[in-house]
Amino acid sequence: MSRIVLFENIHPSATEVFRAAGFNDIVAHGAALPPEALAHALQGATLAGIRSRTHLDAALFAALPDLRAVGCFCIGTNQVDLDAAMTRGVPVFNAPFSNTRSVAELVLGEAILLLRRIPEKNARVHQGYWDKTADGAFEARGKTLGIVGYGNIGSQVGTLAEALGMRVLFHDVEAKLPLGNARAVPSLKKLLAQSDVVTLHVPGGKTTRNIINAAALAAMKPGAILINASRGTVVDIDALHQALRSGHLSGAALDVFPTEPKSANEPLDSPLIGLDNVILTPHIGGSTQESQENIGREVAEKLVGFLQAGATKGAVNFPEIPRQAPAGSARILHVHRNLPGAMGNLSHLMAEQGLNIVSQQLQTRGQIGYVISDVEGEVNDSVMAALRAHPVTVRCDRVVGR
Ligand code: NAI
């Protein structure tokens, strides 16, 4: 019996997918849990479904021998120790594309609002003033949008921006096919120097840490706008504060921060609070009903594909094997140390247990190999115990009830 434990209010579309596939033992928690309660809640779980606030570390994986896979119902996976999961034979899935449109729409909306100085005008009206002026207010049409990171989200922002009549430039560390009339710019500095609005869509991590620092901000056009809905570590916030206070930038919109509050009641700690030309949002770029529903379905389908067939296509930390039709009377999922002779050992073991291999698929990644074997013969508990006991085995499971 597979037990599925979900946290952080995952959209009901996920539960629908699990139930439709015949997995009915589902426990859903509304929030992220503190470490001890989390470990307790996951005891005996086959699958864990989390979002960005649940941290799964190496010690937790060590304490959860029954856990077979993790679904991150979001895009980022840095809340999970992916290597620890991999070396225990646990694939981790996410939903890399489900909320790109939501982020792209927010960015465009913010670009328009900031070009028109709406945040400060809105604040003034609320304060009882009626400053009816066109000073510093511009259309988006004809302005240059500079996109840093032309991946799933960045490229979609570009397509939408062109529909508004914006000129689109992008800079990416990889060669990317431009969509529409977008143009690649060879360096970040060149992009910053030409753009009226700069929007960041790079991944987090060391290579992008503070790429928007004081020097980068100084390279931006006077009066330009900066939007960051990627990762908080990409922008040096003190330098941005300076650039806004000095008037070098006319506005900014931030959805992500170097340190983000851990709960709804905790305030954001940022020098940008109180600036009326800055839009601050609580990391909701991808948070729409549509994206949550898409994410729920996408990740649940990947998890079901793993439980029913051993499919790992789309796993972020694991050898990828797509779903294949069953060929024998049973399917065995074997994760082993990626060493010479591992496959020979497995075939030998299976033969010893009276199993005839009908079909086999192997993929390796780093320290592990993953092999799906369709076999004829009886795969009972003693066969599974023999396969698990071999030193080359990391973990071994069978697919039942396909
Ligand atoms: P992606 O992986 O499709 O695209 C990232 C692009 O950045 C790639 O083309 C990559 O080559 C490029 N890149 C990497 N380092 C770079 C550098 N130093 N300079 C220029 N380009 C560089 O990622 P995706 O899906 O478009 O997501 C982008 C960012 O948005 C990620 O940081 C993600 O975590 C964040 N995100 C934020 C959300 C929110 O709620 N605010 C929701 C979804 C994603």
Q: How large a portion of the residues is in β-strands, by DSSP E? A: 15-25%
CATH architecture classification name of the largest domain: 3-Layer(aba) Sandwich
Mean pLDDT: 96
Low-confidence stretches: none
Order of helices and strands: EHEHEHEHEHHEHEEHEHEHEEHEHEEHE
Oligomer: single chain
Write a concise keyword list for the protein shown above:
402 residues; alpha/beta; Rossmann fold; Alpha-Beta Plaits; 3 domains; seven-stranded parallel sheet; five-stranded parallel sheet; elongated; binds 1,4-dihydronicotinamide adenine dinucleotide
Question: How is this structure best described in words?
Answer:
The protein is an alpha/beta fold. The protein has three domains: 1-99 and 289-306, NAD(P)-binding Rossmann-like Domain (Rossmann fold), CATH 3.40.50.720; 100-280, Rossmann fold (3-Layer(aba) Sandwich); 326-402, ACT domain (Alpha-Beta Plaits), CATH 3.30.70.260. 32% of the residues lie in helices and 20% in strands. It has helices spanning 12-20, 35-42, 58-62, 82-87, 100-115, 118-126, 152-163, 188-194, 214-219, 237-245, 289-309, 342-352, 381-389; strands at residues 4-6, 26-28, 47-50, 69-72, 92-93, 144-148, 167-171, 183-184, 197-200, 224-228, 249-254, 278-280, 330-337, 356-365, 368-376, 393-399. The strands form three sheets. Strands 8-7-6-9-10-11-12 form a seven-stranded parallel sheet, sandwiched between helices. It has a five-stranded parallel sheet with strand order 2-1-3-4-5. Strand 10, helix 10 and strand 11 form a beta-alpha-beta unit. Helix 5 packs across helix 7 (152-163). The longest helix has 21 residues, at 289-309. The model has no long low-confidence stretch (mean pLDDT 96). The site of 1,4-dihydronicotinamide adenine dinucleotide has 32 residues, from helix 5 and helix 7.
